[in-house]
TrEMBL record:
<dbReference type="Pfam" id="PF02896">
    <property type="entry name" value="PEP-utilizers_C"/>
</dbReference>
<dbReference type="InterPro" id="IPR018274">
    <property type="entry name" value="PEP_util_AS"/>
</dbReference>
<feature type="domain" description="Pyruvate phosphate dikinase AMP/ATP-binding">
    <location>
        <begin position="22"/>
        <end position="56"/>
    </location>
</feature>
<dbReference type="Pfam" id="PF00391">
    <property type="entry name" value="PEP-utilizers"/>
</dbReference>
<feature type="domain" description="PEP-utilising enzyme C-terminal">
    <location>
        <begin position="550"/>
        <end position="897"/>
    </location>
</feature>
<dbReference type="InterPro" id="IPR036637">
    <property type="entry name" value="Phosphohistidine_dom_sf"/>
</dbReference>
<dbReference type="InterPro" id="IPR010121">
    <property type="entry name" value="Pyruvate_phosphate_dikinase"/>
</dbReference>
<keyword id="KW-0547">Nucleotide-binding</keyword>
<keyword id="KW-0670">Pyruvate</keyword>
<dbReference type="InterPro" id="IPR000121">
    <property type="entry name" value="PEP_util_C"/>
</dbReference>
<dbReference type="InterPro" id="IPR023151">
    <property type="entry name" value="PEP_util_CS"/>
</dbReference>
<comment type="similarity">
    <text>Belongs to the PEP-utilizing enzyme family.</text>
</comment>
<keyword id="KW-0418">Kinase</keyword>
<dbReference type="InterPro" id="IPR015813">
    <property type="entry name" value="Pyrv/PenolPyrv_kinase-like_dom"/>
</dbReference>
<dbReference type="InterPro" id="IPR008279">
    <property type="entry name" value="PEP-util_enz_mobile_dom"/>
</dbReference>
<dbReference type="InterPro" id="IPR013815">
    <property type="entry name" value="ATP_grasp_subdomain_1"/>
</dbReference>
<feature type="domain" description="PEP-utilising enzyme mobile">
    <location>
        <begin position="449"/>
        <end position="530"/>
    </location>
</feature>
């Protein structure tokens, strides 16, 4: 059988279905699904993504069977509609719409009103008895077709200011000026007819080709343009940002036109089944009477709220669909509820009303920002619409990150100078310097500057600059405009429809409520309320502790995940913070930070300079009370939870990097000659300190250090135990590469610990284990695992030693590795699963082969990275440990890992 390239939908029956997204694209699959659900959808058909791939690989030609299939589908549509494509008496008009697997807002193009030609126009006028409507549709067809098919898809690169769309719009403005009207609706049928002729002349002059006056030529032109636009510049750049593979291809949907611009009983609009900015469970949307779909999305007119609930202070005076067409609103409301229930997710819908009849043109899973994603997931889970696993998957780690983002300080906001109000398209607060073009935003963003991109409206050409900006502000457009959609997708602060802004792009200034804001001036946006302020206002961190939806989501994530989550923290305050973020222990307490306090560092230096063992012991023991106090506070803050404390790790010379003055002072303090200090410092110098005298190697040459630290830990633990505090210290020996190193250190630790416990006559349950961060430790993990009670992978050093890259020097070449794609990612940020990951897996397997209960965690930077967390789950680790602020993200990512790898 020949491959099927075209799938029909119409009159309650479709060949496709929602789960066929890969083949039919998102839009096509959902049009089919809606049709099958009995929802009114204008009939049409979908040309598959496989046809796109064929087209790309075969010199822009179609599979031979495609034309036949397409003609059959047109015949079906004609039968349902009772009209004929290209018919002079009763012509059928079509739209050509692209639709990839994943929605790519605005990236691909749509051509409406296909089939209007000198042959069909008279019949269309007669049928509708509305000449003005027909010429309005015609001028829209010409504009879209010239822009999308004849210029963009054809790869024509016009000079600045010579873009065909701009030229045609200028001709339209001229016509309006001549007629003395401001809106398109002020132009008469004759004006529009004349304008169409003018458009065609401009096209011929500018593009050297006539606008096609043949219905089928228009149709094929539209289809080819969709396929070509898949490899257009903008689509390719969006795909790169969003990581969408080029092989996916796009489908093409050809569909009967329905008209929202056929008078005052016609309308068009878009909606979300829940509020995409807050997550609130209310139908939310915008509509325009007597307009074609693109008018709402393009932000040419500011649209009306769809219902009474959606009205804000700023839109209260506008008429809602609920008021104007209550019956149709009711039907639409039922459909949106039906769709959300059917898909069990918030839907983003498009509809058109043609002379009192409602048609659905699109449904898809709606984009939402982080706070909305959290609210919806929790609400839908609590109402039983989705289960817990689905609920956690509904929030991406990056979206959770948005909840941890700043807001404008309300105190500062009270006294701030308000410049303008707009629509709150992307919540949160941001302050930045004003720029007017996407290129500038990108250039300054790369320099690390905070910029706010200010535009009349944005288009897909601006995405790179929108990405680089901290916030986006537009003068035009509604909550579903391009700027709003893109910003929401990225969780960016954004205000749209800020009509008070008079933006002069040439002069690079904004005139607004008596102020002049120039390029580079600071402004602050409150994207939650839609307010723009002069100057840089202070921002504050959000209060997660009183955010019920967030807390509930974390609770669900905790039920779903298998991995434990700990935090890396050295100080009691950080430990406390980690605890409130939900950490279940400390995975890494580094002790070296505890030595830099002025009094302590003196004792440390004395120890380093000591000549005899006794002197050294005396010096190091001065540190004991300090360390004991540190551990006491940390263990107390983390009562009931495990705390992994790593013994001293860095090379000693880090404690004696001294200036001449400091050497002189130290010599006086310790009463030793300066010469001696200098000689000692020289002797500590290492050519390659990262591979030098550090980690357990210190404890082996200076066992007093290990003794002192073990004593401090166990004494603190014993004191707390006496007080009735439940403590779980885990003593971690760093940088082990052979089991004998481990045994040497473990013996010291246990001996001291037993001594202390005997002295104090208490029992403390403590563990001794090791940090696995040298390849040899992984290779011999069965030997080490037979002795150690736990492993914690130190993946920073393990990455360093596996690659042979010095983390401190990698900055010199890593950027080139990334830009040349030699490495897909920075291995210090995201674990190199295929290389370093093998060593981790080997460490786990070998360790557990001799000790099935071996407790295993990770405490490198990777512990907070979602894809590394997924790896840790698969590798069978017990927990990940990350910085306190990453703990919520790690909890969510661990839940994802549990679901994905089920
Ligand atoms: P996008 O993917 O950018 O949303 P669409 O294919 O949805 O593009 O088309 C853009 C606009 O054109 C939509 O707002 C839709 O309402 C309108 N449109 C598309 N097809 C039709 C049609 N058959 N009849 C009426 N309007 C249409
Ligand atoms: Mg659409
Ligand atoms: Mg290390």
């Amino acid at each position: 059988m020949e491959k099927k390239y075209v799938y029909f939908f119409g009159a309650g029956k479709a060949e496709g279905a929602a789960q066929m997204k890969n083949l039919l694209g998102g839009k096509g699959a959902n049009l089919a699904e809606m049709t099958n659900l009995g929802i009114p959808v204008p009939p049409g058909f979908t040309i598959t993504t496989e046809a796109c791939t064929y087209y790309d690989q075969n010199d822009r030609t179609y599979p031979s069977s495609l034309e036949n299939e397409l003609m059959n589908c047109i015949k079906n549509v004609e039968e349902i509609m009772g009209t004929k494509f290209n018919d002079p008496v009763d012509p059928l008009l079509l739209s050509v719409r692209s639709g990839a697997r994943q929605s790519m807002p605005g990236m691909m193009e749509t051509v409406l009103n296909i089939g209007l030609t000198s042959n069909t126009i008279p019949g269309m006028i007669k049928k509708t008895n509305d000449e003005r409507f027909v010429y309005d549709a015609y001028r829209r067809l010409i504009t879209m077709y010239a822009d999308v098919v004849m210029e963009k898809a054809a790869g024509v690169e016009p000079e600045e200011g010579k873009e065909i769309r701009g030229l045609l719009e200028a001709a339209m403005d001229e016509a309006k000026e001549k007629r003395g009207v401001e809106l398109d609706t002020g132009l008469t049928a004759a004006d529009l007819k004349q304008l169409s002729e003018r458009f065609k002349e401009i096209i011929q002059n500018q593009l050297g080709k006539p606008f096609p006056d043949d219905s089928y030529e228009q149709l094929w032109g539209g289809i080819g343009a969709v396929f070509q636009s898949w490899n257009g510049k903008r689509a390719v750049s969006y795909r790169r940002i969003e990581n969408i593979p080029a092989e996916w291809g796009t489908a093409v949907n050809v569909q009967t036109m329905v008209f929202g611009n056929m008078g005052d009983d016609s309308a068009t609009g878009v909606g979300f089944t829940r509020n995409p900015a807050t997550g609130e469970n209310v139908f939310f949307g915008e509509w325009l009477a007597n307009a074609q779909g693109e008018d709402v999305v393009a932000g040419i007119r500011t649209p009306n709220p769809i219902n009474e609930l959606g009205k804000t202070e700023d839109t209260a005076h506008l008429k809602s669909l609920e008021e104007m067409m209550p019956e149709l609103y009711k039907q639409l409301d039922e459909i949106q509820i039906n769709l959300e229930t059917h898909y069990s997710d918030m839907q983003d819908i498009e509809f058109t009303i043609q002379q009192g009849r409602l048609w659905m043109l699109q449904t898809r899973v709606g984009k939402r920002n982080g706070p909305a994603a959290v609210t919806m997931a929790v609400d839908m889970c609590e109402s039983g619409m989705i289960d817990k696993e689905t609920a956690v998957m509904r929030v991406k780690p990056a979206q959770l990150d948005e909840l941890l983002h700043p807001m404008v300080d309300p105190e500062g906001e009270k006294i701030a100078v308000e410049l303008a109000k707009g629509l709150p398209a992307g919540p949160g607060g941001a302050a930045g310097q004003v720029v007017f073009t996407a290129d500038e935003a990108e250039a300054l963003g790369e320099q690390g500057k905070k910029v706010v991109l200010v535009r009349n409206e944005t288009s897909p050409e601006d995405v790179h600059g929108m990405h680089a900006a901290v916030a986006i502000l537009t003068a035009k457009g509604g909550m579903t405009s391009h700027a709003a959609l893109v910003a929401r997708g990225w969780g960016k602060c954004c205000i749209v429809g800020c009509s008070a802004l008079q933006i002069n792009v040439l002069k690079k200034e904004i005139h607004v409520s008596g102020h002049v804001i120039k390029e580079g001036d600071w402004i602050t946006l409150n994207g939650t309320k839609g307010r723009v302020y002069k100057d840089q206002l202070p921002l504050i961190e959000p209060d997660l502790e009183s955010n019920d939806k967030y807390l509930k989501l974390m609770e669900i994530a905790d039920q779903v995940r298998k991995l434990g989550i700990r935090a890396n923290a050295d100080r009691p305050e950080d430990a406390q913070k980690a605890r409130t973020f939900g950490a279940e222990g400390i995975g890494l307490c580094r002790t070296e930070h505890m030595f830099f306090d002025p009094e302590r560092i003196k004792a440390m230096r004395e120890m380093i300079l000591a000549e005899t063992v006794d002197e050294r012991r005396q010096a190091i023991m001065k540190l004991l009370p300090f360390q004991r106090q540190d551990f006491y506070e940390l263990l107390e803050a983390m009562h009931d939870l495990p705390v992994t404390i790593r013994l001293l790790d860095p090379p000693l010379h880090e404690f004696v990097t001294l200036t001449e003055d400091q050497i002189r002072n130290l010599a006086r303090d310790l009463d030793v000659p300066e010469e001696k200090i200098k000689n000692r410092i020289d002797s500590l110098h290492e050519l390659n300190p990262m591979l030098g005298h550090r980690g357990c190697r210190l404890g082996i040459t200076y066992p007093e250090i290990t003794e002192m630290q073990a004593r401090a830990i166990i004494e603190a633990a014993a004191m707390l135990t006496e007080k009735g505090v439940n403590v779980h210290p885990e003593i971690m020996i760093p940088l082990i590469s052979s089991v004998n190193e481990y045994k040497h250190q473990e013996q010291i630790v246990r001996k001291v610990a037993e001594e202390v416990l005997k002295e104090k006559n208490v029992t403390v349950k403590y563990l001794v284990g090791t940090m696995v961060e040298i390849p040899r430790a992984c290779l011999t993990a069965d030997r080490i695992g037979a002795e150690a009670e736990f492993f914690s992978f130190g993946t920073n050093d393990l990455t360093q030693t596996t690659f042979g890259f010095s983390r401190d020097d990698a900055g010199g070449f890593l950027p080139d590795y990334l830009s040349e794609k030699i490495l897909p990612e920075d291995p210090f940020q995201s674990l190199d699963q295929i290389g370093v990951g093998q060593l981790v897996q080997m460490g786990v397997d070998k360790g557990r082969s001799v000790n099935p209960n071996l407790k295993i965690g990770i405490c490198g930077e990777h512990g907070g990275d979602p894809s590394s967390i997924d790896f840790c789950h698969r590798a069978g680790l017990n927990y990940v440990s990350c910085s306190p602020f990453r703990v919520p993200i790690a909890r969510l990512a661990a839940a994802h890992a549990a679901v994905v790898n089920k």
